[in-house]
Amino acid sequence: MRDTEELYREYSTQVYKFIFSFCHNHLLAEEITQETFYRAIKSIHRYDGSCKVYVWLCQIAKHVWYQELDKRRKSSSDVLEDPSFTDSNSPESQFILAQNKMDLFKQLHLLDPNTKEVLYLRLTGEFSFREIGEILGRDETWARVTFYRGKQKLMKGRSS
C-alpha cells in the first residue's frame, strides 16, 4: 500500500466531501475526516485490496460518522441543526422551515438504508450518480434508479 502522506493527499478531499454530505458542518467533517485517516492508518494491515481504497476509506468514514451520531444522540444534541435556518426574518418562518426540514428527515429516516444513503449523497453531497455507485460498490444505473425511486417515495409521503 502507499505511504500514508500520499494516501491522505490523494483521498482527503473526497472523504471530506463524503462526510460533509451527511453532517453539513465543515468543522465536524474535518474532524471526522482526520479520524477516518487515523483509523485507516492504524488498520492499514487489514486492507486486503478487495475494493478500491476510496471505497474502503468511505466505509471507515461512515462508521466514524455513525459513532458520532450515537454519541450525539446519547448527549441529546441536535445533529441536524443548520445555522442557515436561524438567519430567517421572522420567528414564524423559522418555525415553518424547521418543521419542513424535520418532516423531510423523518421521511428520509423511514426509507431503506441504501435509498437513504443515495439520497443523502446526491442531494447534500452533490455527488454524481457514477460517484455514488462507486462509493456504494454498485454501478451508475443502480444509483440513478435508487435515487428516482426514493424521490418518488418521498413525494408520495408528502402528498398523503
From TrEMBL:
Superkingdom of this protein's organism: Bacteria
GO molecular function term, any single one: DNA binding
Transcription regulation as a keyword? yes
Ranges of residues in domain RNA polymerase sigma-70 region: 7-74
Instruction: Please report the stretch or stretches of sequence annotated as the RNA polymerase sigma factor 70 region 4 type domain.
Output: 106-154
Q: Which GO terms describe its biological process?
A: DNA-templated transcription initiation
The answer to whether the entry has keyword DNA-binding is yes
> Which of UniProt's keywords are assigned here?
DNA-binding, Sigma factor, Transcription, Transcription regulation
InterPro entries on file:
RNA_pol_sigma-70-like, RNA_pol_sigma-70_dom, RNA_pol_sigma70_r2, RNA_pol_sigma70_r4_t2, RNA_pol_sigma_r2, RNA_pol_sigma_r3/r4-like, WH-like_DNA-bd_sf
Query: Coiled-coil segments, which residues?
Result: none
Supply the Pfam families for this chain. Sigma70_r2 (PF04542), Sigma70_r4_2 (PF08281)
Which family does the UniProt entry place this protein in? Belongs to the sigma-70 factor family. ECF subfamily.
- Name the chain's protein: RNA polymerase subunit sigma
